[in-house]
Amino acid sequence: MVEAEREFVTLTLGGQLCGIPVLDVQDVLGDEKLTPVPLAPPEIAGCLNLRGRIATAVDVRRQLGLPSAGDAAGHMSLVTEQDGELYALIVDRVIEVVRLPTAGLEPVPPTLPVGWAAASTGIYRVNGRLLIGLDVKRLLAAVTE
Q1: 10 Å Cβ neighbour count for 90?
Q2: In 3-state terms, what secondary structure has residue 138?
Q3: Residue 71: left (phi > 0), alpha (psi -120 to 50), or beta?
């Protein structure tokens, strides 16, 4: 059976509309206090305690080559699990869950920066904007190796 629609949690990163498959998201958190991790790479913003489990907080802006928004800007996090480990993907804002037709998925444009293209599954046109579909496994590849 061919999947006619996919559900995405939509979010923004540096003003860009993005989406992560809803099945990859376990929880959505507000602006949580992070504990710094000494000697961690710059894309690791710290860690947080999530109901007794430690989640590594990944600054998705930095992971994709955008400047960090800084602490004063506030943020939200999408919690995901990869290979038994919890990760909190720090994004600017989580918007809503949307259903998009799989037929509307277009290939990654060649003009997309390398980091974005490596983490992207393609783009959708949504209400006059481009939504970049992000693959969590690809997004976390650099921090889980």
Answers
A1: 26
A2: helix
A3: alpha
> What is the per-residue pLDDT across 112-137, written as a single tens digit (0 to 9) for each?
999 999 999 999 999 899 999 999 99
Residue with structure tokens 């190796």?
Answer: 145
Q: Are strands 120-126 and 27-29 parallel, antiparallel or unpaired?
A: unpaired
This prediction has a pTM of 0.91
Q: In the numeric block, which tokens belong to residue 64?
A: 């994709």
Take residue 95 and report the two structure tokens written for it: 């918007």
Give the tokens for residue 43: 């894309």
Q: Are 139 and 63 in contact (CB under 8 A)?
A: yes
Encode pLDDT of 7-47 as tens digits: 999 999 999 999 999 999 999 999 888 999 999 998 999 99
